[in-house]
Amino acid sequence: MDLLNGIERKTVVSLMGRENDRYLAPLREVESYWMALCGAEDVPLRSEIDPRGIEGALEFAFLIERISPRLAKLRVAGSHLTDLMGMEVAGMPLSALFAPEDRERLAEALESLFSDPAVLRIALRGESGYGKHPLDAELALFPLRSDMGEVSRALGCLVTKGRIGRTPRRFEISTVRVSPTPSGKLFPRQDQPTPPVAPAPRAMAEDAAPFTRPSPERPISGTPYLRVVVSNDD
Predict the structure, then answer these.
(1) pLDDT tens digits for 37-95?
(2) Which of 4, 153, 160, 164 lies 20 to 30 Å from 123 when distance is taken between CA atoms?
(3) Cα 226 to the chain's mean position, in Å?
(4) Are 88 and 82 in contact (CB under 8 A)?
(5) Which CATH architecture has domain 14-180?
(6) How many CA atoms lie within 13 A of 11 on its CB side?
């Protein structure tokens, strides 16, 4: 509050900013944790993920595994995803959370997530219908490497704003943002064939002689020809 020319003025503070901060807090926690794990290899290993590092966001977090270039399934999921679908979601494709008409758009984004790799941030809105209240959501996906080194896992976080209402709740895509990983480092695309490896040079080895099967009409050189003689004399 201040006084100017004898007029009292009050500063109005909007509560919307604080509400958005609370709504997005779990997503920011997961993002900060993933960023802290990014090292020289840029994309962290799946085995480096420790649930204690995102304790405040566990109910909103999940892990997915790539099962084809454009498809991933949920491996581990927090309770919030179970609440949204009204059932256990582990083992289900991630696309089950999306409206059918938006699954192709999700597939394109997943291809970038794993193949570039990249970070995905997707703004969502819940499908409308009887008993389904307005529901906004934010989804973030952060790539991870398997123990074999390929980028085939991802750490995700899905937060929603509004009443869940009747389940299952599926989402339509509003916007998709694809960002490079912190160093912008690109990994070999997982769907590209591995280039052929040239044979190692041979050392102190003779060339293999071709094998020719001997003709039954001609004996092998230096070996007596064997004949079967049948005698019917008793």
Answers:
(1) 997 668 999 999 999 999 999 999 999 999 998 999 999 999 999 999 999 999 999 99
(2) 153
(3) 69
(4) yes
(5) 2-Layer Sandwich (3.30)
(6) 3
Question: What's the predicted TM-score (pTM) here?
Answer: 0.72
Place of tokens 């009409």: 217
Domain boundaries, the chain: 14-180
Query: Three-class SS of residue 114?
Result: helix
Tokens 């503070």 belong to residue: 13
| Angstrom distance (rounded) from CA 44 to CA 46 | 7
In this structure, what token pair is assigned to residue 91?
């083992």
Question: b/e per residue, 120-134, with b = 16+ CB within 10 A?
Answer: bbbebebeeeeebee
* Residue type present at position 173: I
Strands (E), the chain: 2-4, 7-9, 61-68, 71-77, 118-126, 136-145, 151-161, 171-180
pLDDT tens figures, 175-226: 999 999 986 654 444 443 333 434 433 433 444 445 455 455 544 445 444 4
State the Cα–Cα distance between residues 45 and 148, nearest whole angstrom.
Answer: 9
Start-to-end C-alpha separation, the chain: 134
Assigned token pair, 224:
């007596």
Q: How far is 156 from 31, CA to CA, in rounded Å? A: 9
